[in-house]
Amino acid sequence: MAIDLILNGKAVALDAPPAGRLIDALRDHAGLTSVKEGCGEGECGSCTVLVDGEPVCSCLTLAGQVAGAKVETVEGLARGPDRPLVDAVVEAAGVQCGYCTPGVILAAKALLDAHETPTRNDIKTALSGNLCRCTGYHRLIDAVDKAATARRRLAGDAG
Amino acid sequence: MTADRSRRRAAKRPPAARRATPRRKTHSRPDPLPTVVGKSPRRVDAGAKASGTARYTADLSFANLLVGYPVTSRFTHARIRRIDVSAARRVPGVVAVLTAEDVPGQNQIGVVIADQPLLAHDLIRSAADRVALIAALTREAALAAARLVVVEAEPLPLVCDPVAALEPSAPLLHPRGNLAAKMVIRTGDYAKARAKAPIVLEQTFTTGHQEHAYLEPNAVVAVPDAGGMFLTGSMQCPFYVQKGVARVLGLSHAQIRVVQAPTGGGFGGKEDYPSEPAACAAVLAHHTGRPVRILYNRSEDIAWSSKRHRTVIKHTLLADRDGKLVGLKATIYVDAGAYLGLSSVVAERANASAGGPYRIPNVEVDTLTAYTNNPFGGAYRGFGQPQVTFALESQLDALARELGADPIELRLKNFLRQGSRTVTDEVLRQPPLAARTAVEARDRSRWAAKRRAAETHNAADPDRRHGVGVASMLYGCCLHAGGQHLEGSAALVQIHPDASVSIAIGASEIGQGAYTAMAMLAAEALGFAYDQIHVVPTDTALVPDSGPTVASRTTIMSGNAVLDAARTLGARLRPVAAELCGVAESDVVLQAGAVWARGKQAALSIAELVTAAYLRKVNLAHTGWYAPPKKLWDKATGRGQPYSLYCYGTLVAEVSVDTITGLVTVQRVTAVHDVGKAIYGDGVIGQIHGGIVQGLGYATMERLAVADGKILNPTFTDYLIPTALDVPEIDIGLIEEPYERGPYGAKGIGEPALIPVAAAIANAVSHALGFPLQDLPLSPERVKLGWEAHRSPAAAAP
Amino acid sequence: MIRAFANPKDLTDAIRLLTAEPRWRPVAGCTDISVKLRFDRLDADGFVNLWGLLPRHIEERQDEIRIGAGATCAQLAKSALVRAQLPALFEAAATLGSPQIRSRATVGGNVANASPAADLVPALMSDDARVVVQSANGVTTVALHRLFVGPQKTILGPGDLITEIVVPKPAPLSYARFDKLGFRQAQIIAAVNFAIRATGAAGTLDAVRIAWGSVAPTPVRSPAVEDALAGTRLTEADIAAAIDAVAADVRPIDDHRASAAYRLAVARSFLRRALKECQRWLST
Question: Which of B31, B115, B366, B442 has the fewest CB atoms found within 10 Å of its own CB?
């Protein structure tokens, strides 16, 4: 029985075992390999995806639990209106080995969608479920800060 | 120059990456300064990584792919009686179950000496020893089969302490004895100095294991290929993998091709270790004739891979009443684990670095590498140096307390100067910059005011105490003289007919930004635009063996090789340009993607020049090479020149210690490093940020719990590394005094960034609490129980 | 491998399924059960999905605060009501796990898993919470501190579902605090959890509720300490006596996270700090 969901903006029917992990459904059945497995125990955040806008560890979520939900990965972001957030992480030199990067970007998007003016501490808290062993986090925090400013400017222009 | 300033300057100009045609077109002469080097363009690999299109090893697809799985036993030290894999072979979906006799070549993977079988057959010496290999259609089938592998063995007594391991009564792990390696330094006359020294400080320090905790666990694929083997995977040292796989398969190096896949972090953990899973995958692929992929999960990775060495350091520091150091004696016990791996090489660096950046005339250092049944030690960022730096810098603070002196003033009194002799009796020719880094760190951090403020705050005896500490460092950059035969490095630079350039280097990209720095150096030296340069994945078939990607050597070694190739190609292009422009060759300059003739931008573009060169059948590919001059060094006394160059650094850490819980919070770090020349600005800053946070973890929270040789916390739930909420404010100062042999003056930064961190934090915590700390990590439990014992010694006594 | 996965249409349907299939497990946020699954510590044949079925309200009704079992930690940490009335629960929810965990972890799951280290439980216990249990036989209410019988063990049977947590509205003038011993600033399993609620007037403590986590096989109330404090004026001697009583209420163990001696030392320090703070509160 397929799992019906909205994946990166498109209605899809994923033919994956519902009792299996969401990360496996996304990687093996939808080819979304930006979703990385770093620990499989919900600690590193490399497998973060957005489910109905909220960040979740796809290694802890059962595939069947996202039936009817909206699921987003970095592949979707990179093609959509959140591309500036992806670019901000690149421009701020927030990428080193890159393994944690997609998960960090999704955690950041969840924050920015909920808070227009996050403080530096809000950003740190939002990223506290994404382990990064390379950057020491500073450039990632800077990137999210800059992306927040850019979004406000854009919203201001639009308004 | 300061980092902040360098960023601002970089920010003024658009990154070179987005300048397909240089702005300089409007200028009338080439820029006398580097146009790319020293800037911070967009990383060559960042776009693909951030948008999820970079394909790491687990993301690749192969036809007929099998899952490989190495099987360990429940034993830690035992004599094997029987290994029975018959039940495992019958599990549906299992394609092969192999044991030691199935290894086609040598059943051996020791990097330095042949002491480590790929598959155990007579003795099990560690919990990570493999007894069998499984290839199956799925991981579930492989795991089911692994559970059915029967190992009957007679347990042997364990040795889990590197000091006890060297006692005559200790059970032996290897026939040669448990002393795996010994390094010494003998300079001056320590015994005489000790007899006369007015101040003798003796302390014993211990440091725990550290797990690399790169985010991508080990991953490798082996694909049988025309009688040989193709491998790709997460690794630092493709040439090590090539040699290791050739040995277990009994094939020549030429039959093994290794291409590095995008690698999710290394930090030394992927220097020597990936050869093990690669050898396992290759043996399975050889037997099944199918591609075999081995992916470790996090627990397997922590349980099986190498760690930063646990050490015990017995340390005596001699000084006079003026605070001048007169002698050092250190016995450094390095816990190798069950096999040597790279432990002797790590020990070599610990040994050579034991005296830090100080003038100490009488030195007796013994570095004893001991076999134990513990998890095995391997390469880890800093390579033996964070441990000895912690011991020495703690002793310097103990001396400052003894004398009532300021810790930085005490260090300034003792730093190496121009022409000083190091503890290995080397006369320094390059200017020693330790004092400059210390003065800058002192001033930037407002050291004196911060120390006073902490002391005033603590006088009120709050639950939260403050402290400020310092540590300085000297880092011998690139390989130690003992390994100098591996130093030669290559780079292939190829200009294509459309004037795009591909470069292949022998070193690897593990997140540190090596490919970006290489692209920048190539652009600068060729005079091409940065975005014309592409870096191809490191491939043993493209470039000669270039040694390992370690020792903060890539920018210098591979960088110089890139420059060598680029200059050769420049020499081939310039006559063509001269001919086309009708000027003398000496009047032609290629820079920033343009051809300049007699100081003016020529009508000729780089693309036209390359087309013309191809029409003239000019060879526009060259493999550049760099090897530093030979270093003279005597193993018996440890005297001579251990390293080609030194980097210096000083770090000031400000901490807050919660005495209710024992938790240490690092609030601010000021790091000043002597980097020669920062080639890729953001890369240098990124290395320093990352090194500080990794060092902070080592100092405070990263505790590998090991009992009877087994790791009790092989998970990210229980092995804690810093999160975004644990990081301090960081202020960075860069000292840029060009190194004569570095590309555009560059030195290394990867390891210096981490080395002094734990030492500075420990000194800050000591300052906060008022008593010395001798054990890393400064876990909350140690700090809390230490504090309670310090406050009421009687109550804490058993 | 667990293959069965059921998406029941409502709670009654879920209870029917769970009663019929005792080896199927109810799952909501899955943040705890998936970890058990990952380490081969889950003995079950199937999952019954409750995500989206459990009530998620957080509301004030007369003299109670009622929280749907499906309310997530992220919800609790955003709730002005919880922040104002149940500061210990607020703090526990806001610091539990990571944002990724908080967006899925439910209050019902945190209680039902019966982990000795469950962060929300001591906070709820210090506020005298009760759990509402729905089963095929109807709806019952159990005092939270009577729910647990051992690590990962409750008095609940296979078809019993926690649907709501009910907390009496605390007295308008009271003191509350939550402390957690973890070895970094985020994403941590507590080595000691501590929650306190004290009421009093005119310099005298009236009632004190204290609960501990990670210092016994289950989260526990602290009767000896509570008795030592009730009715006192919180003098230095009263505080010392209360700290001495901690050892009677907790039974910490040595494990790879922390030694028993260290857990006890921190438990005593947590209590001391809270009582000093409470002393200042009483005197104002």
Answer: B31
C-alpha closest to that of A38 among A128, A111, A133: A133
Please indicate, yes or no, whether residues C158 and C201 belong to a single structural domain of this protein.
no
C121 and C200 share one domain: no
Residue B434: CB atoms within 10 A of its CB come to: 25
Q: Say if residue C114 is in the same domain as residue C189.
A: no
Q: Are C264 and C236 within one domain? A: yes
**Would you state the structure tokens that stand for residue B260, as one six-digit string?**
């590095």
CB of B216 within 8 Å of any CB in chain A? yes
Same domain, A91 and A144: yes
Which residues lie closer than 8 Å to B565 by C-beta, 6 or more apart?
B491, B492, B493, B503, B522, B622, B623, B624
- The answer to whether B686 faces chain A, any CB pair under 8 Å, is yes
Q: Is residue C161 part of a domain?
A: yes
Task: Give the residue among C182, C195, C208 at the shortest CA–CA distance from C263.
Answer: C182
Interface list for chain C against chain A, based on CB atoms closer than 8 Å: 1-5, 7, 27, 30-31, 34-35, 38-39, 46-47, 49, 51, 74, 97-101, 103-104, 185-187
Same domain, A88 and A112: yes
Q: CA distances (Å), B755 to each of A157, B696, C182, in order?
A: 48, 11, 26
Q: Which of A33, A52, A76 is the last residue of a domain?
A: A76
B795 contacts chain C (CB < 8 A): no
Taking residues B402-417, report their average pLDDT. Answer: 98
**C98 and C239 fall within a common domain:** no
Q: Where are the alpha helices (DSSP H) in B616-775?
A: 681-700, 757-769
Rounded to the nearest angstrom, the minimum Cα separation between C277 and chain B is 13
Residues B491/B535, Cβ–Cβ less than 8 Å:
no
How many domains would you assign to chain A? Answer: 2
Q: Contact A42/C100, CB-based, under 8 Å?
A: yes
Q: Which residues of C touch A54 (CB under 8 A)?
A: 74, 103-104
Q: What is the pLDDT of residues C17-58, one digit of tens each?
A: 999 999 999 999 999 999 998 888 888 999 999 999 999 999
For tokens 């001059």, the residue is B629
Q: What's the mean pLDDT when you consider all of chain B?
A: 95
What does DSSP say about strands B199-207 and B775-776: parallel, antiparallel, or unpaired?
A: parallel
* A102 and A115 co-located in one domain: yes
- Under the banding of pLDDT at 50, 70 and 90, the label for residue A115 is very high
Cβ atoms of A36 and A131 within 8 Å: the answer is: no
> What is residue C261's three-state secondary structure?
helix
Q: Which bin fits B398, alpha (ψ -120 to 50), beta or left (φ > 0)?
A: alpha
Q: Which residues of C248-282 are buried (b: 16+ CB within 10 A; e: fewer)?
A: ebbebeeeebbbeebbbbbbbbbbbebbeebbebb
Eight-class DSSP state of B132: E
* Distance separating alpha carbons of residues B566 and B525, to the nearest angstrom: 6
Same-domain status, C270 and C244: yes
Q: Which domain holds residue C79?
A: 4-48+57-168
Characterize the bridge pairing of strands B663-674 and C153-154. unpaired
Of the candidates A76, A109, A124, which is a domain's last residue?
A76
In chain B the domains, ranked by start, together with CATH numbers, are 32-56+488-626 (3.30.365.10), 62-156+213-304 (3.90.1170.50), 307-481+634-796 (3.30.365.10)
Same domain, A121 and A154: yes
Strands of B482-566, DSSP E: 489-495, 501-505, 533-535
pTM value surpassing 0.90:
yes
Structural domain that includes position A37: 2-76
Task: State the ipTM, two decimals.
Answer: 0.98
Q: For residues B236 and B258, what is the distance between their CA atoms, to the nearest angstrom?
A: 11
Distance CA B189, CA B186 (A): 8
Percent of chain B at pLDDT > 90 equals 93
Residue of C nearest to A54 (CA): C103
